């Protein structure tokens, strides 16, 4: 109870929650950046609902992301992703962790920009590769040289992720530390815009 670390964490949470108000908090970034795992922690800390857009797409379609890509192709997947995102961002506050390509699609990006505060979890190639190479659930990385594909995606997408409202560097520290940095970024953005 009297642990100073916990007292600081409480005040951080309260300040971030106040700074967010009724807006949604939306995490964007490449596969493996930590949107889903860090997002879940941030939502718990803020006491707001957590939604992962990939999981929501799988729930409504009753298909896995890989199955959707295989059956309908990427364009149809993006159209569905856009519709799901629009619906998720009506009302708030919610923490929405997006799929890696959501913010890249013009229409979906508009929904996100209108729908709340966007945070780019920015990671370097080694960090991302270390995390994504353990599972083969990501259809875009089913190529001959997935590490190169990931690098190509970084080059193409980083200028677009840059349009997010806030950027937090995702690196090899505990997920709780990353979550704390997201909270601090939300607080700082409010302080800056009020100044
Ligand atoms: N800070 C961290 N330290 C260690 N491992 C992490 C960290 N953040 C995420 N991970 C791990 O990296 C993997 C990918 O993380 P996560 O699924 O959260 O990424 P994502 O951004 O949601 O990716 P996608 O776009 O594919 O959904 C998971 O196994 C997760 O446990
Ligand atoms: O980066 C991407 O384009 C993707 C990332 C995943 O979250 C899924 O949304 C899907 O595999 C596409
Ligand atoms: Mg995810």
UniProtKB/TrEMBL annotation:
Its EC number is 2.7.1.71. It comes from the Bacteria. The keyword Disulfide bond does not apply. Pathway: Metabolic intermediate biosynthesis; chorismate biosynthesis; chorismate from D-erythrose 4-phosphate and phosphoenolpyruvate: step 5/7. Mg(2+) binds at residue 36. Substrate binds at residues 54, 78, 100, 157. Belongs to the shikimate kinase family. HAMAP family: Shikimate_kinase. Monomer. This is Shikimate kinase. The gene is aroK.
């Amino acid at each position: 109870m009297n642990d100073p670390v916990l007292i600081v964490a409480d005040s951080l949470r309260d300040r971030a929650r106040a700074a967010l108000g009724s807006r949604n908090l939306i995490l964007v970034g490449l596969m493996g950046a930590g949107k889903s795992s860090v997002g879940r922690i941030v939502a718990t800390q803020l006491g707001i609902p957590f939604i992962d857009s990939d999981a929501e797409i799988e729930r409504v379609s009753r298909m896995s992301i890989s199955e959707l890509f295989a059956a309908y192709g990427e364009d149809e997947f993006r159209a569905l992703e856009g519709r799901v995102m629009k619906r998720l961002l009506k009302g708030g506050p919610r923490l929405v962790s997006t799929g890696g390509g959501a913010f890249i699609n013009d229409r979906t990006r508009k929904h996100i920009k209108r729908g709340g505060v966007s945070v780019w979890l920015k990671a370097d190639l080694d960090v991302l590769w270390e995390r994504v190479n353990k599972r083969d659930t990501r259809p875009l990385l089913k190529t001959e040289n997935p590490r190169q594909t990931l690098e190509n995606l970084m080059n193409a997408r980083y200028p677009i992720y840059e349009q997010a409202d806030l950027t937090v560097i995702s690196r090899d520290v505990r997920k709780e530390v990353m979550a704390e940095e997201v909270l601090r970024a939300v607080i700082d953005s409010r302080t800056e815009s009020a100044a």
